[in-house]
Structures are given as structure tokens and as C-alpha cells.
Design a protein that fits this description.
Number of strands of chain A: 10
Oligomer: homodimer
Strand order of the largest sheet of chain A: 4-5-6-9-8-7
Order of helices and strands of chain A: HHHEEEHEHEEHHEHEEE
Shape of chain A: elongated
DNA sequence: AAGTGGTCTAGACCACTAT
DNA sequence: TAGTGGTCTAGACCACTTT
């Protein structure tokens, strides 16, 4: 408005498109992220104050706030009350690996089948009893599954479920429950939370035979345990696969 | 206000404390999360509408919005324009493992030392040349480090840095740069982004000797590559450790 | 005292979904 | 058409940091 005179100062960066389907706060966040990526603002640098951004981009304080919050959530900037907003340096510790790769195996058009190798009632040994918070010797359901991808054995799953006489388990259920559904987010609504641990391992003879892999072979081991809404364990188990099947990859910093 | 009559209907959940240092939006998010955790709202259930929450908790629409956004970011609920807000089911694929455990080794009071085993200029082999985007045979800096925790060998790091004649590397720098700093978030401000890959492996003879581990041994392998603000590779390397040193753990769902 | 981020209001308007 | 989430405004007030 007030730059009628001295026209040459036209900025190239205050182009917020009000007509766009892309929200203003996201456009603003993108604009700032872009400038960081281009090196306009370097790690450690202070960003323009929120008031300044309000004037520069002609948006309301709340909108600027939201854009900054977005960048802060993404670890791109950090804010300090009373001091300012600063560009963050790359921090390895915040790198996060996810299991979206595995999800693809189930949800997409990949030919993934789950074979039930074994499913029977056994008595819990010490380890299983501890994990499922039952007494040693109590009956639990033991299942072994083989997940095949494109006709090749890929994942070998051994799991233990608490045996609930009031809710008998149908065998056909076992084949799909708890794995495909959990990865797709259609998990049983009985499950409130779970814990996952990933660890490197060396495949043993049985695992190698089932997965048709020659020894010795590095393996990735995924242990999982799920709890219901009473915080009681529901199931515990281990998924094992060849190291190459479960490579965790992530990126830090800006693209 | 309008519940002066029929007093018995006093809710136990509309207790937003305006005096608290805990922001209202966070208190509201906590209250909703708590009710989900208690089973008041089950996975798949629809939450009260935002307008309803405004009336129930006597806060402004923006504040409700922010609370819901928080829960949506945390994968606790999902929103659908025109339909409503719904409680999410546990989804394994969104589980994210981070490296905060490693950070603790460096930043805390743990006795962690970094020993430079080797640091010299070599000619890049095919693999290194490809990773660092230089020509095969070009000079690169090769370093080997041993990270000891509480006097015990813990991580073995082999890295390659592009050799920049304009910015000679001091040996003492090598001992700390790029590792401690990167984990603590005080990484060189020259680095814009990086890629990390975690993979299971079996320790080879050299690695086992340096880490003082008997073979055979499962190992976790962390490959990393960093880029500068010109999107040119700066360094590439591999950190290897015993499987038990790098166990990735995470939780899904609600506590 | 001046400048910074942090929260919150009380609406308005829009886009989408159901009926 | 009514109800839902989604965005945005134009401030106000507060807490904190720096000078």
C-alpha cells in the first residue's frame, strides 16, 4: 500500500494467493521454508518477528502464528519467548523411522498372503506369562503365521494371545486379525495401545527354513505387545524377516 | 450459565482452569484424550462437534480447533470435513522410532569418549565416489572412529568426507565434528539435510575386533549421508554397533 | 521500556456431507 | 437445509528477554 513511491522494492516473496485451495498459513510456512532451503536464512539465524511477517505478508497475527507453529512442529525452526524465532540445525536425534514401508505390503496392490502355519492352545511359559501378565501354565493361544509377498516367504510371525473363554477365536479370524488390520489402521477397536521394539538378530535354523533363507543371515526382529482399554495385555509376539526386508529409512532437514 | 436449575447435572469434565500455566487448548486436548483413554469414546466413535465443545467448555471456536488439531497431529483422532471428528484406531504403520536413545549417550552425564582411530586422505572407490558424487579416484578424507561408553567400545564409525582444499580440516575437529554435534542439534550450519538408513547386519571380523565382541554377533548398521545448502554431499559413512546397543522402541495409541 | 513469542476471543465466511 | 469441520480476522492481553 505505502510503497507507491520507490517502486523498485517490489518483493518476490509476499505472493500469498488468497484464491488458492492451499491455506494461507501453509503458503506462508512454505515460503519461509523455501527461503531457509535457499540459504536466505541459515541455521542459527533469527527469522523476522511475527509482527514483521504480519506486515510483510498482510495476514493476521493468528495466521502467522499458525505458520510458525507448523514449522516448529516440523523441527525446522525453534521459538523462544521474548527472544525470537530461529532456524534449527539438523539434529540426528529427532530422526524418526516409520513402518509405512510395511503398510504398503498389505494395503497396496502387492500380492500379499497370510498363511496360518499353526494355531493352538498351549500353556504359557515364563516369558510369555510375564509379557501377557498371566500365570505361568495358564492357557494361551499360540499362532504361527507366514506372510508371503509376491509368492515369496517374507515375514514369519509367532504370537501369543490371552485366551478369553467368553470370546472364542474363530480360526479364519486369526488369519487376518491383528496384522493386516493393525497396519491399515482398521485394528480391533479393543486395542488401546501397543509397544514395538525393533532389534537386529541372526536368523536361527527354524526361521531360516520357514523363510527359505540360507544361513547365516542377518535378520530384523520386531517385537510387539498390545493392550486393551483395561490396560491388560491382549497379545504379544515377534515378527522376523531378512534384514533386507525391513530397512528403515528417513530424512532429516529440508528437501 | 443456564444450568442454574437441575443442579445435579454438574459435569466432572468441564473443568478448564483459566489460571493454570497449562494452556486452555492443551487442557481441552488432555480432557478429550483422557476420555478416549477411559473408553468414554471408543475407536471409530464420533466426538462431540466443535460447536458442542465450545458450549460445553466455554471456550472460543479457535481454541477448540487448536485442541482438535493437536489430537489430529498426534494421530489420536481424524477429522472429516462435513462429517465430524472420529477416534482413530491404533495404526502400526504410523509407529515412529527415533534415535533419542543415542543422543543420551552424548549429551547426558554419561562418560562418552570419541577416539580417532584413523584419519587420512585416500582415493575414492566406486561406492564412495557414487555416494559423495565425486569421480572415482578423487581424493576424499577417510576417518575411523571408536565411540566408547563408560570405557567400553560401543560404536564403530567409518566415514568419508569430500576433500575441500579451500577449507582444510584440523585433526582435532574430526574428533568431535559431525557426531556429537549432529546428535545434539549443534550440527554444522553448513548442513541442510541428511538421509539415514538402519539395517540389521552380522558383524565382520574387523568390526568385532574393534568393538571387542565375539563372533558371530548380530549388529545394527546405521548409514548416513549429509548434504550442504547446494545439495552437494558433504559426508557419508556407517556406524555399526552390537544389536543390543541400538534397540529401537516406540509406543502406539494412548497411555 | 520496547520488542518478542504465546494465548485467546467472538465472531465471519467457506466447503463439504448428510438428509 | 442444517450441521459439520476449515480458515481467517483484528485485535487484546500476557510472559518473557533485552537494553
Amino acid at each position: 500500500m505505502d510503497n507507491a513511491k520507490g517502486g523498485s522494492a517490489a518483493q518476490t516473496n509476499d505472493h500469498i494467493d488468497r484464491q488458492s485451495a492451499h491455506p494461507v498459513y501453509a503458503q506462508l510456512a512454505d515460503a519461509i521454508r523455501q527461503q531457509i532451503s535457499e540459504g536466505v536464512y541459515r541455521p542459527g539465524d533469527q527469522l523476522p518477528s511475527e509482527a514483521m511477517l504480519v506486515r510483510t505478508y498482510h495476514v493476521s497475527p493468528m495466521t502467522v502464528r499458525r505458520a510458525i507453529n507448523l514449522l516448529a512442529d516440523q523441527e525446522v525452526v525453534s521459538t523462544a519467548q521474548g527472544r525470537g524465532t530461529f532456524v534449527k540445525q539438523v539434529e540426528l536425534a529427532t530422526a524418526a523411522f516409520d513402518l509405512r514401508g510395511i503398510k504398503g505390503l498389505f494395503s497396496s496392490d502387492t500380492a500379499t498372503t497370510i498363511k496360518l502355519l499353526d494355531g493352538r492352545i498351549i500353556r504359557a511359559d515364563g516369558r510369555t506369562a510375564r509379557k501377557l501378565q498371566v500365570s505361568q501354565g495358564d492357557t494361551v493361544i499360540y499362532i504361527r503365521r507366514l506372510i508371503e509377498v509376491d509368492g515369496e516367504p517374507a515375514f514369519y510371525h509367532r504370537g501369543y494371545l490371552v485366551y478369553d473363554p467368553t470370546r472364542p477365536v474363530v480360526e479364519s479370524e486369526l488369519e487376518v486379525t491383528e496384522l493386516r488390520c493393525l497396519f491399515e489402521g482398521r485394528g480391533s477397536s479393543l486395542i488401546k495401545r501397543g509397544e514395538l521394539t525393533v532389534e537386529a538378530s541372526i536368523m536361527n535354523e527354524e526361521e531360516a527354513r520357514i523363510l527359505k533363507i540360507s544361513l547365516p543371515s542377518p535378520a530384523m526382529l520386531l517385537e510387539h505387545i498390545f493392550y486393551d482399554f483395561n490396560d491388560r495385555p491382549v497379545s504379544w509376539g515377534i515378527i522376523i524377516c531378512h534384514a533386507k526386508r525391513l530397512r528403515l529409512h528417513t530424512e532429516v532437514g529440508l528437501k
